[in-house]
Design goal:
484 residues; alpha+beta; set domain protein methyltransferase, domain 1; set domain protein methyltransferase, domain 2; 2 domains; globular; binds S-adenosylmethionine
């Protein structure tokens, strides 16, 4: 998102930054430590960022933004202008609607200088063409973009409100209304810009009331399973202009009663960039949510095996729970998933350390003889997860299937990556080359994990520690993680 192509040319870029800072400082409740400044980091592909002018001590306050300045449902006029309760739309869609409203207000919006420093074009996966997405090859991230779900939510919940209130939502791009195909397409585009800003810039502000129900079907592409809990979202000016880089996190936002306060959590040297923490996320997710990738996140990479692939490798005709008693048993014990995520192993990890217990349970169940399975089922007990010869054999097949879905080899990708990144180049790539490079980094990470798993399986087989057992109950090599 922050490649320089997404920002205006230099003079207005700097002017917009200056106007934004003046706007902030005009608010008597905003405090900005003179030791920090907003910097132009486009040459490194990072857009704007915040940098230390002089040394900063650990614990020092960097800036403080009053809650009333947060771009959020609670602070926008819109909630008083519409008959319906906007918050009932849920945190994502309500903020999306408010942002569309404020954005369309142009100079009339109190956040207009803030909007001018926010990008309107993004490198997040939502905006990649089919050809660009194909560069991610077999990465499970491709199925997690959720564009269709997002479109449906926007058309089902946002569009009717916008269309019913033309006096509040002025048409743009020379349109006379948001009706018809052109109007709908424009509205969708606008909503995706706001959705993408929320995904990459917004903070969870506070717990919503317990009775604030998320409307059904709102699990769209901007909301991931682990984020769907009811926290209201808000855009916090300046706080969201901090970039992030896994190993270099040196600041954190503290939510205080009246204000949100960014503080240094480490001593920061003059000239150093100030980084927020986006969490321990794999590069595939970094790309999906934030539209950039750095190698500092490589240690959080994962690879995912789908339930469908595992069932197929085990010789099942399908992976429908209703028609597969083995899957039913696992589901009854809350052990069934659509996909199984395996992290990048550290040099000292064993297979048992990295394979999730649910995957071991699935492999074990699928490897049981009919008799063993019936025995467990009659006692309504799931299998004891283990990695023994049958499970390792099945895992090997799954691994090979997954590897075969990536169109190119790891060696080929490494070569391609180095040809895209000449050692002397310190300027950021743009457009499609940038996206290709990021896709390569993601798929290389996943292929490295697949190779590591393969090596672990090979060494398990060659050092004789695998043993074929009559049933999955063999204790000695039971997963360390097996605790139920
Ligand atoms: C919260 S905003 C940070 C401000 C942003 N750089 C800007 O100019 O608007 C998050 C976005 O910044 C960019 N970003 C954050 N950390 C980055 C990094 N380490 N390298 C490159 N881009 C980064 C990504 O595009 C991400 O979606």
């Amino acid at each position: 998102m922050s490649s320089s192509a997404h920002f205006s040319e230099s003079q207005s870029f700097q002017q917009q930054s200056n106007e934004f800072v003046s706007w902030l400082e005009a608010n008597p409740d905003v405090k900005v430590n003179p030791k920090i400044m907003l910097a132009d980091l486009r040459s490194t592909g990072a857009g704007r960022g915040v940098v230390a002018r002089t040394n900063i001590s650990e614990g020092e306050e960097l800036f403080s933004i009053p809650r009333s300045l947060i771009l959020a449902v609670q602070n926008s006029q819109l909630k008083t202008l519409l008959p319906q309760d906007i918050e009932a739309l849920g945190p994502w869609l309500s903020l999306m609607l408010v942002m569309i409203y404020e954005y369309l207000q142009g100079e009339q919006s109190r956040w207009s200088p803030y909007f001018r420093v926010l990008p309107t074009r993004f490198d997040t996966l939502m905006f990649w063409s089919p050809a660009e997405l194909a560069e991610l090859q077999a990465s499970a991230i491709v199925d997690k973009i959720g564009k269709q779900g997002a479109d449906e939510s926007i058309l089902g919940s946002i569009a009717p409100i916008v269309k019913a209130n033309p006096n509040l939502f002025q048409p743009v791009n020379g349109l006379s209304s948001y009706e018809g195909d052109a109007g709908t397409a424009t509205l969708l585009e606008l909503a995706h810009v706001m959705g993408s800003l929320i995904m990459a810039y917004a903070f969870d502000i506070e717990k919503a009331e317990e009775d604030d129900d998320e409307p059904e079907g709102s699990n769209d592409g901007y909301m991931t399973d682990d984020e769907e809990e009811q926290l209201s979202k808000g855009m916090v000016p300046l706080a969201d202009l901090l970039n992030a880089d896994a190993d270099r996190n040196n600041a954190r936002l503290y939510q205080e009663e009246e204000a949100l306060v960014m503080k240094a959590i480490k001593p920061i040297q003059e000239g150093e960039e100030i980084f927020n923490d986006y969490g321990e996320i794999p590069r595939a997710d970094l790309l999906r949510r934030y539209g950039y990738v750095t190698d500092n996140y490589a240690s959080y990479d994962v690879v995912e095996f789908s339930l469908a692939d595992i069932c197929q490798a085990a010789g099942l005709l399908n992976s429908y729970v209703e028609s597969q008693p083995r899957l039913q048993l696992l589901e009854e014990h809350d052990l069934l998933d659509d996909g199984y995520v395996i992290p990048r192993p550290s040099p000292t990890d064993t297979l048992q350390d990295i394979l999730p217990i649910e995957l071991l349970a699935l492999l074990t169940t699928l490897c049981q003889s009919q008799e063993e399975f019936e025995q467990r089922r009659s006692k309504n007990k799931p299998p004891k997860p283990a990695i023994e010869t049958p499970q390792a054999g099945l895992l090997y097949k799954v691994l090979q299937t997954k590897q075969s879905r990536y169109a190119t080899s790891l060696a080929h990708d490494m070569q391609l990556l180095s040809s895209l990144t000449p050692p002397q180049a310190d300027t950021a790539l743009e457009g499609s080359s940038r996206r290709l490079k990021m896709a390569l980094q993601v798929r290389i990470g996943e292929k490295e994990i697949l190779q590591a798993i393969q090596r672990m399986l090979d060494s398990l087989a060659s050092n004789g520690s695998l043993k074929r057992t009559a049933n999955g109950d063999h204790d000695s090599r039971q997963s360390k993680a097996a605790r139920y």
